[in-house]
Amino acid sequence: MSTRTLIRGGLVITAAEETHADVLIEDGRIAALAAHGSGAAEAWTADRVIDASHKYVIPGGVDAHTHMDFPFGGTFSSDDFETGTRAAAWGGTTTIVDFAVQSRGHALRAGLDAWYAKADGKCAIDYGFHMILSDVNEKSLREMDLLIEEGVTSFKLFTAYPGVFFSDDGQILRAMQKAAGNGGLIMTHAENGLAIDVLVEQALARGETDPRYHGEVRKALLEAEATHRVIKLAQVAGAPVYVVHVSAQEAVAELARARDEGLPVFGETCPQYLFLSTDNLAEPGFEGSKYVCSTPLRPREHQAALWRGLRTNDLQVVSTDHCPFCFVGQKELGRGDFSKIPNGLPGVENRMDLLHQAVVDGHISRRRWIEIACASPARMFGLYGKKGTIAPGADADVVIYDPAAEQVMSADTHHMNVDYSAYEGKHVTGQVETVLSRGEVVIDQRKFTGHAGHGAYVPRGTTQYLG
Ligand code: URP
Ligand code: ZN
Ligand code: ZN
Ligand code: ZN
């Protein structure tokens, strides 16, 4: 027997248009839309009717960069797939693409299987995987073809973190050549890790151990240099490249220049770079450790270039890079040595709201909000049509969003498994009210009604962003 849900009276916003329309959901998919006043919806019957008057009806968010249960700096990120995806649902995100990790000396297969096992039966919302390549060799290059067949179509390589995830330029070029042939999308963490390690050593030798030095040694120029380099390597390979967590204005300039030349070069930024700055890293009493991530937060002046990049489409996507570590017991590992602070910030629950605040503040339009948070990440990573939009045939991943609600972000009220909020005390206009994941209500007027194991693995196609 089929189940039908009707969402009535709201303003439906997609990347392409805004329409006052009713939305009919049948068996987990969008069945039809009918503009208010057209009369079409009057004949519809439904098992459940959701009143969305004075609310937005938007596609569920697609967060294409999360790290649940992620090993880093001798510890693991504090959200696992259960707590992290539940928090994502609270924040209006209905799909995550997380990073499976290839350990050095091991096959991609082993890494991917370990991440399937971590996520299996735990997720409240749907999930896919990218693969981190930390050991590019003949075997792992061959394995890329197999991963693409099972829906892992994007691969992250690091010019940072020597000895851990780092790949040299030759390895990066070889992975890009492979991607040019098989349709894979190479994602890069672009910072010159070898040069940064020299600056880290020199800073520590001078007794510069506080969190703020994390921002000083990881220089914007070294992000720009690595961004330039991976763009050139991709050009040589004839492959597209997607640069993750762009924070420096100089790096945005590299992306913009390449795109002006017509190259298939893409970039993502994250809310922390748009709303936080080195002022946070400089907070006294080791509070700055809460803001240690890489690429690092930048001086506030960089934010204008990021907002401009989002408006001009030199940056296409906003993801969170959600990688939380508790202050107590985890960030504290780096007391007396900033280089030992685990890198990463919580944010999977905050992204849709912070980007709505950007609409309120006039940085982006409502449709651009949906584009950078839902539609473009879905297209970039081969999910569009199923995810990222509200249209007949799409999965019924839908958020009823109250644009007039006021909220104050806080660790006291958030649902992420971490003991602080990077946005503590921030006033935001707008709030998620109700969330559907494949037609099932997982947040019902700000109550969690979902369950671990509802979320399904989503095999992805190759990028739909080209052409
Ligand atoms: O600081 C960060 N970004 N931690 C997560 C790992 C990465 O580089 O994305
Ligand atoms: Zn990274
Ligand atoms: Zn990351
Ligand atoms: Zn369910």
TrEMBL record:
It comes from the Bacteria. Signal peptide: none annotated. Its EC number is 3.5.2.2. One of its GO terms (molecular function) is dihydropyrimidinase activity. SUPFAM superfamilies: Composite domain of metallo-dependent hydrolases, Metallo-dependent hydrolases. Its cofactor is Zn(2+). CDD domains: D-HYD. Residues 56-442 form the Amidohydrolase-related domain. Keywords: Hydrolase, Metal-binding. Belongs to the metallo-dependent hydrolases superfamily. Hydantoinase/dihydropyrimidinase family. This is Dihydropyrimidinase. It comes from Streptomyces durmitorensis. The gene is hydA.
